[in-house]
Amino acid sequence: MIKFFSVQAPAAVVMIRPHHFHSNPETADDNVFQIRQDDAADARIAAQAHAEVSTAAEQLQQAGIAVHLFEDEGRTTPDSVFPNNWFSTHAGGHIAIYPMFSPSRRHERRMDVIEFLKRHYRVQDVIDYSGLEQDGIALEGTGSMVLDHIQRIAYAARSNRTNEVALERFCTHFNFEPMFFNAADATGHKIYHTNVMMCVGTAFTLIGLDTIVEPERRREVAARLSENGRDVIDLTHDQIAAFAGNAIELAGSDGPVLALSQRAFAALRPDQIATIEQSARLLPLSVPTIELAGGSVRCMLAGVHLTKRPG
Superkingdom of the source (predicted)? Predict the structure, then answer.
């Protein structure tokens, strides 16, 4: 059997299993998806988050996706469960390391993860942008950018965590066309990470078009997304708030899989599900505790777009 392949859909992911997870007060000001919690509940919440990551990893593996699971026993990295913000991998053997907006999140970068990828995959170079933090510049990986690996476009919503200069630099190095826009939720708050409002798959895209503030830019983004025949599935503000845009297409053993949360799946309409199922199997994962921190399944999965070494 020929395994499904798309440059858009990685067949492996990196996940971090936290031992001391909690909602990070340092990131709450610009993340309206985040829910503040009672400190007294920290131990219970940490245990629940640990279990949710373990179960999600098992379900992904059962779908034929390789999961590289790392432990985080640190107490100073409450958002470590979201590794896609500090590194990304790219076809041709490239890795990027990113500058983070919040000081506490900068401790999430782990060279043991990078060294693991070098040992098991063909890595040609590692480009480290983290020095831009000293200039107050952030670009939080595939949270800040939603990458169309087929059309070579980097979609990005302006925010404290997504700097235009850093995006241009990334796009020059990695051969993407930058497509910046302003995006806001139903209450007018800026979208903090682009990957909560859109997901690009091989044959479809999920996007909250109404979150894009300027009508002309909204039309341009929709047109670019549909250029290669993709179905553009327009999400409502309520669906975005339920993390329906925070999904990722992966290459499973039986074909493409769309990984998303149970909450996101429940928010989709039957016609939207039917459109997705024309080309991918939906894989809902239960991560309600993780979602307290303001991110969901897409944020938990750092895709591996590298070539595996023999053996």
Answer: Bacteria
78 contact partners, CB below 8 Å, separation of at least 6: 18, 20, 21, 22, 23, 24, 104, 293
Residue type, 84: N
* The pTM of the whole model exceeds 0.70: yes
Taking the chain (311 residues) in runs of 10, the rounded mean pLDDT of each run is 80 96 57 50 85 98 98 92 98 98 95 98 98 97 98 97 96 98 95 97 98 97 95 98 98 97 98 98 97 95 97 74
Q: Are 82 and 295 in contact (CB under 8 A)?
A: yes
Three-state DSSP at 97 gives strand
**Which contacts of 109-115 are long-range, i.e. CB under 8 A and separated by 24 or more positions?**
110/70, 112/70, 113/14, 113/70, 113/83, 113/87, 114/87
User: How many Cβ atoms from other residues are within 10 Å of residue 18's Cβ?
Assistant: 23
For the record, the structure tokens of 78 come out as 């409450």
